[in-house]
Inverse folding.
């Protein structure tokens, strides 16, 4: 009888301690989240809510030491992001490429040092080549020069381009590119202008 | 030229002249910066911060009117040579991992008797409002010049700081989903014309780490590693990274260990 209760106590103790032991070995991600929350202060337009991760941010924060995403996770992530895309009600995806060029050049917006009453830029040139004339471009993303010619025959190109800028996570899981529409960085009209920059025959993107 | 301060506009003009004449190709920009660095090598305006830092280190200050000369930066009380290259590290008296700036805060409070809230009021200089930390960091870092970065993670606390730093380096958030790794997790890319070091890899991490603290030409200020972290996270659209916060020390520990073995060349000169 005594032996039985001792054994029960041991089992109970083991059951109680297992989660603790697990937390101690696997909890670095959770600990990092707490440290992040304690280490920042709200400033300007950048509130503490910016540190709270949504699904995409959480799933796409893996270190190289962690296992890569499973095919199932990738599928679920892309579907959920795709389902959240809001297309323009008027069915028109193409704005003014001249405005699009200004948006592509501007890197301001959403920093705590930025004026929140001014519209944000898209800063496309920070990561992409877009035209032959602007030689100060980054290489984090692919070149988009000759976008129209290289993607010519797709009748759905304008809609797909709009969607890609709105939420690149619907096309490439854990893409480095910001979700300009999904996160409200650019307005619908601004995204249309950037679509025009990529598609308009007269845009510098599509010049020889 | 030593001790002579070039005015900000003059520096800007010299810089522009180099850039303007060679803006034809993207590569030219980094060449111009290298050239500018070479030209300025013996006349880094950072010298002014080093001089002021030396004065601050030796001056009796605070309610107790003592200098920082008995401050232990990890190699023993008052040892400044090589101290910066071996930071961040765990300090037994404070029971935590500290980088240079947090250790200086600790010494100002415990040795000089200053109040914490007064000490951390001006972590970064702005125009005529100068920061003691920028001057002290320049002075201390200069005494590790030519020495190897040595942050080998000898104990549990340092290993934990590194592990946290790694998590935070890959932590995506904010309006733009950016993590440090978004720009600094790949080799051979650039943002606009600026080459981006891959800070998760030893070769690039060394090159980047050993140049800080650095005189920032575009700002006319000497900037510390704490400032570098804060300003990167600002551009990540995160809130304000608190000076000396646990996340800042974790990130600096992550970078320092990745840069282990790199030869210190601070204070450096940056665009």
């Amino acid at each position: 009888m005594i032996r039985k209760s001792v054994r029960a106590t041991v089992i109970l103790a083991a059951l109680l301690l297992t989660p603790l032991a697990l937390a101690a070995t696997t909890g670095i991600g959770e600990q990092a989240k707490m440290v992040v929350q304690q280490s920042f202060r709200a400033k300007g337009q950048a509130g503490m809510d910016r540190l709270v991760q949504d699904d995409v941010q959480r799933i796409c924060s893996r270190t190289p030491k962690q296992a890569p995403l499973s095919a199932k996770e990738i599928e679920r992530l892309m579907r959920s992001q795709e389902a959240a895309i809001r297309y323009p009600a008027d069915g028109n995806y193409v704005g003014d490429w001249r405005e699009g060029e200004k948006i592509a050049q501007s890197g301001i917006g959403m920093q705590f040092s930025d004026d929140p009453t001014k519209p944000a830029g898209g800063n496309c040139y920070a990561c992409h080549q877009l035209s032959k004339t602007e030689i100060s471009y980054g290489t984090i993303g692919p070149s988009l020069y000759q976008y129209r010619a290289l993607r010519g025959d797709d009748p759905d190109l304008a809609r797909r381009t709009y969607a890609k800028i709105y939420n690149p996570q619907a096309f490439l899981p854990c893409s480095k590119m910001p979700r300009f529409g999904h996160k409200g960085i650019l307005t619908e009209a601004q995204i249309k202008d950037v679509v025009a920059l990529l598609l308009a025959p007269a845009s510098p993107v599509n010049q020889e | 030229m030593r001790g002579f301060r070039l005015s900000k506009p003059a520096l800007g003009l010299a810089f522009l002249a180099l850039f303007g004449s060679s803006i034809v190709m993207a590569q030219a920009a980094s060449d111009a910066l290298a050239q500018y660095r070479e030209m300025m090598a013996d006349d880094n305006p950072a010298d002014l911060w080093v001089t002021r830092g030396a004065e601050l280190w030796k001056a009796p200050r605070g309610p107790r009117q003592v200098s920082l000369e008995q401050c232990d930066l990890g190699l023993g009380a008052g040892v400044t040579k090589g101290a910066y290259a071996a930071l961040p590290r765990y300090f037994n008296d404070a029971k935590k991992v500290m980088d240079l700036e947090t250790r200086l805060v600790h010494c100002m409070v415990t040795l000089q008797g200053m109040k914490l809230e007064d000490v951390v009021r001006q972590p970064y200089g702005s125009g005529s409002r100068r920061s003691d930390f920028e001057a002290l960091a320049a002075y201390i870092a200069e005494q590790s010049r030519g020495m190897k970065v040595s942050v080998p993670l000898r104990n549990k606390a340092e290993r934990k700081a590194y592990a946290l730093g790694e998590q935070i380096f890959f932590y995506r958030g904010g309006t733009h989903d950016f993590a440090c790794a978004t720009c600094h997790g790949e080799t051979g890319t650039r943002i606009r014309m600026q080459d981006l070091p891959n800070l998760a890899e030893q070769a690039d991490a060394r090159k980047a780490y050993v140049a800080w603290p650095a005189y920032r030409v575009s700002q006319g200020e000497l900037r510390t590693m704490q400032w570098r972290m804060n300003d990167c996270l600002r551009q990540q659209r995160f809130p304000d990274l608190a000076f000396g916060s646990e996340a800042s020390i974790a990130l600096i520990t992550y970078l320092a260990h990745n840069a282990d073995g790199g030869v210190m060349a601070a204070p450096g000169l940056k665009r």
User: Anything to note?
Assistant: Chain A touches chain B through 47 residues (CB under 8 Å). Residues 18-23 of chain A have pLDDT under 50 and may be disordered. The beta strands of chain A are 40-41.
